[in-house]
Structure formats: C-alpha cells, structure tokens
Design brief:
This protein has 9 helices and 30 strands. The chain has a 9-stranded antiparallel sheet with strand order 8-9-10-11-22-17-16-15-20.
C-alpha cells in the first residue's frame, strides 16, 4: 500500500487468553523507586511451575539488571540440565509441600532449563546453638548444615494468604527479592537481595537471637564453592568438581579508623555442559573457573568479646575445620558467624570469569565499599545501601521498559490486569539473555583460555529464540547489538548492522549455532517479518507451557477464552555507533506485518 510510517513501529497483536488471576508481589516502597507501572506489572512467578521439565515454564524469579552476567535467585531445588534453581510447584494441586523451602541464595549462570550451570556460588543462612562444655570448649547443637536437603529453611506463610502472592512471605521483582524463613529453632531469618551485573548484594536479618536454655543462638552464613554436580539430566549421574576458598588475613590489626572488611574469595570449576564441548576445545575449556569474592560488613578481626575460638572456618566433605584459612577440593564451603553485637549481615559477592582480583575489582566498581567509622564499627556509605543497589537495577529496567507503550483491550479490569502482567513479564524475560561475558571491557574465552579485549555475551539459546529475540532486541536495545554480533557473527557487511569475527566465550552448544542467515544477514524484510514473531514471542510462550504451569492461563482452546487486542508502540531508536537507523528503515518499507 505504500503507507509512510513515522520512525516508530505500531503493532497490532491478537491473542487468546483466559482471565486467570496470576500471583504477583509488590516490593516495599523503598525498593519500588523509581516509579514504573510497567515494572509493577512484571510477575516473575510466571513460568516457574511444573513438576516435569517438559511441563515446566523453565523460568526463574531472579534479580539482575538486563543481560546481567550473574543472576541471583533463591534455591528451591538442585539445579542441573532439565532443572532450574527455583521452582514454584508448591502452588500446584496436591503440591503444598513441594519445594516449599529455600536452600540458599545462588548466583547462577544457567541459561535455560535444558542447559547446565557454570561456576555457581551459593550463600546460605543458618543458625546453631552454642553451648560451653569446659574451659573454652564449645559444642554446636544441630551443627552447620551443608548438604542441600538439611540446610533448607521453610518459607513462612501468612494467615491471611491471598491468591495474588501464593500466601508466602516472599517478594519477587527483577530488582529486589525478599523472603522470610523459619530458622529451624523457632526464630526467623529475613533474606533480601539485589544484584548488579557482576555483584550480588545480599542482606540477612536474624530475629529472636536471645539465649535459650540449651545455649546461645549463633547465626552464620555458609558460602558453597564446590558442590556435588549432576551431569546430564539424570540425577544419579553425580560428579565432584573441585573448588577453592581463601579468607582474607591482614598482617596486623588495622587502626580503629581504617578497619579492614572481612572477605572470603575463591572459585568453582563446575561446568555442567562440559560433556558437549568439542574435542578440539576441551583443553582450553577445562580451565574454566567461576571466581568470586564475598565481602562482609564487619572487620576481619573478630570482637575481643567473642567466646568462639574461631568465628570462621572451612567445611570439606562434611568435616569442619575451625579457623582454617585456605582449602581446595570437592564439596567445599566456608562458614562465617555473625559478630555477637550484630543481628544482621550485609554480604556483597563480586563474580568474575577472569580472576579473583577481577572479582574483587568488579565488587569495588559496581557496589562500592562500606566505610569505617569509630571503634571499628562499620556503617554503610550513603548511596551504597541495599536500597540504593536495588534502585540502580530498577532504574535500568525502567529505562528499557519505558521505551514501550501498550494499550490493552479486554472485557473487564481483571482480564486487562492479567494481560499486562503477561506482556511486561515477557518483555523482561526477553531482555535477560544473552548475558554479559565481559568485565571492564575484557572477557575470558573458553576456546583458547585467554583474556581478550572488548565486549562479549553468552547464553543466546539461539535454537529456540534467534528469529524472535533478535528482531525485538534490535528495536529495543540497539546499543547492545554491536557487542552481541561481534561475539556471534561472521565478517560481513549487513543492511541493518555489521557483523564481526567472533571471539567465543563459555563454549556452550547453543551459542555456537550459526546466525549468519536470516536476521544476522541484516535483510530488512526478514527483520520486518520477524517483528511479528518477536512481539508474539514476548507474549505467547508465557502461555504455552504444559498443563502443570498454573500460570499458563488455560491457553489452547478453552471455551472461556476471550479475544484481546494489545497495541504496542516501540519508539524509534538508532543503532549505537552505526549510521543505519533500524526503526526508520523498517518504517519506510511499506506496510507493517499483519498476523
């Protein structure tokens, strides 16, 4: 028809859905800034249920900015190929006791339900009772729990349980997560977290830490560096990749005005997708390490009032080594007791694929340090609280989602609210992958075991998404495309963007799938046609999971399905560092696609 369209895309999407109320949580006001109606409609419970891999949504309610390198999520089950760290199947009929515990907060890099984990790091809260036996000897009732099942803490339910949040004391958003747990001794642990691309910011507040007849309650944090790792999708196929842990150890106590914060750093060598590494690349890829550096909000030297001879130590293969400063090997964790004067612990975990030093540098760069005050008491700098970290991450999400405007038509308000949740959640899911691989403009490559200059991404899952996700991302985040294409393209000139020779990274099977055709060739007509798939892909897959996914809304021919209209407006933006204005080019190519 030759209609002249402005430098923007108007898209009319028709889809069926049933007006099923979906569970959703809203963060407290301090964690809901800046205001964004789009983000308030994001419901990360969508896609998290299903008792079998092929009947599950395969999504997790993680915190991280768009395309974050390490996403942080609560663990409800052991993760491996076919099982994600978080599964909300307690909401299914008859599944009240299923996955109703939290087994730690984990920094994950599992890109999809049918891919594996790479160098995860878990932070687990717990409590023991300290009882003095004789002359400074102490016994801890219950012991520090390290294995996955025993360390799980039950999620507190509310008496006024509502369908909108499953009746759990849990808040799930892209920038802030919290959950209230029973510590196993009639106390409570309030867990909170946010995360930048390479740093997890966690806080644990322990209530009811008073003396009991059987001893004093002593809260602790366990950091798991090496776990038993399941290879393939068979739970009995267990391997034991080694890890490494080292505590910071100052030469002498620093002056009271310059307290050194307590740190434990190390790495994990776990890479569950190693079995699909090409033979030619196995030598380099086997050198992979997921580095971390965890920093606590108290000094390295324990308080002189502490009655415990060693406030930290190592646990290896079930054996506790109090006061041990360094260890390596499989099934390896570090533990840290809270100072006796504290009932809360702030933990910031920097991650890296390059080195421990880079993990520490990422920590300093993305969530800067806390400042020392008088008498070795540490206070958080203004602008470096958990609230400020969450605000920064929420701001990143809001900036991207505000590039889209939608108008939803339905038969009633309830139906409209459901559609808003489905749409905005789909947009957030579409901007989680691929994940950043670069750190300070450098990245480690699993193909040659070298650190290269530049940007890189991994976890594309191209087999399932490349036609849909690339078209949408070209429109929404064009500034990201050059870095993504340099990683995954080939040397060629393209109409919409340029592709550059790849510098591969984690060497997973899905990211090696070629992208030289279709969208990667830059043909404008393909981009236009795939826009239909892209925006359809944002919404429809959220409702096409198997019957076990209670948030699927009954899609598939239910007689109560109603026809809704979603009008989507994507603002025209130019590709960063490129002369081609993608939106304008698409807009000037006659009529938009119809579905």
């Amino acid at each position: 028809m030759g209609v002249s369209w402005p430098p923007a895309v108007l898209y009319l999407l028709l889809l069926y859905t049933s007006p099923t109320i979906l569970a959703k949580t809203i963060a407290p006001d301090a964690f809901s800034q800046p205001k964004s109606s789009a983000l308030d409609n994001v419901n990360l419970y969508i896609g998290t249920t299903g008792t079998e891999p092929n009947k599950a949504g395969g999504m997790i309610p993680s915190v991280a900015p768009p395309f974050g390198m390490t996403r942080w999520v609560a663990q409800t089950q052991v993760s491996y190929v076919s099982a994600t760290p978080y599964n909300a199947s307690w909401v299914l009929e008859g599944g009240k006791e299923y996955n109703d515990k939290i087994h730690g907060l984990v920094g994950t890099r599992q890109p999809a339900i049918w891919m594996g984990e790479s160098g995860s790091i878990a932070v687990i809260p717990g409590v023991v009772y300290e009882e003095e036996l004789d002359r400074g000897q102490f016994d801890f009732e219950g012991g520090i729990r390290t294995d996955f099942e025993s360390r799980g803490l039950r999620v507190i339910s509310r008496n006024d349980a509502q369908a909108m949040d499953y009746g759990r004391e849990e808040v799930v958003t892209p920038s802030y997560y919290s959950v209230l747990l029973d510590d196993g001794f009639d106390g409570r642990v309030f867990c909170e977290m946010s995360a930048t691309s390479r740093v997890g910011h966690l806080k644990f507040t322990y209530s009811n830490p008073t003396s009991q007849p059987k001893g004093r309650k002593r809260p602790y944090i366990l950091i798991e560096a090496a776990r038993p790792s399941i290879i393939t999708s068979t739970p009995t196929n267990v391997t034991y990749p080694p890890g490494y842990i080292k505590f910071s150890q100052p030469v002498s106590p620093p002056p009271s005005s310059q307290s050194q914060l307590f740190e434990v750093c190390g790495y994990s060598t776990e890479r569950q997708d190693s079995i699909i590494t090409p033979v030619s690349g196995q030598a380099a890829a086997s050198q992979f390490k997921g580095y971390f550096c965890a920093r606590f909000n108290f000094p390295s030297f324990p308080s002189p009032l502490s009655s415990i001879p060693h406030d930290h130590g190592v646990i290896q293969n079930g054996t506790v080594y109090p006061g041990k400063q360094e260890a390596s090997g499989p099934i390896l964790s570090a533990y840290v007791f809270l100072p006796e004067s504290q009932d809360a612990m702030d933990v910031r975990v920097g991650t890296s694929f390059i080195s421990i030093e880079q993990a520490r540098a990422n920590l300093d760069s993305e969530v800067s340090d806390v400042a020392a005050a008088q008498s070795n008491e540490l206070q958080t700098k203004p602008g470096n609280t958990l609230e400020s970290t969450a605000r920064r991450v929420r701001t990143e999400w809001a900036e991207l989602l505000d590039r889209i405007e939608i108008k939803v038509g339905g038969e009633d308000d309830e139906e409209v609210e459901v559609m808003k949740q489905v749409f905005w959640t789909g947009v957030v899911h579409s901007l989680q992958y691929p994940s950043e691989q670069h750190e300070a403009n450098r990245y480690w490559s699993g193909y040659d075991n070298k650190v290269h200059e530049g940007q890189s991404y991994t976890g594309y899952s191209i087999w399932d998404t490349y036609r849909a996700i690339w078209a949408l991302q070209i429109l929404l985040v064009p500034e990201r495309i050059p870095g993504m294409v340099r990683r995954n393209g080939t040397q060629r000139d393209a109409n919409v963007f340029k592709c550059y020779a790849p510098q591969s990274t984690l060497n997973d099977l899905e990211t090696t799938t070629p992208t030289k055709n279709k969208v990667a060739e830059g043909h404008t007509d393909i981009v236009i046609n795939d826009l239909t798939v892209a925006l359809g892909g944002v919404v429809v897959p959220e409702h096409l999971h198997g019957s076990d996914d209670v948030d699927s809304g009954g899609v598939g021919g239910d007689e109560n399905d109603t026809l809704l209209v979603v009008l989507v407006f994507v603002a025209g933006v130019a590709l960063a560092q490129h002369k081609v204005d993608c939106a304008t080019r698409i807009a000037s190519t006659a009529d938009p696609p119809a579905r």
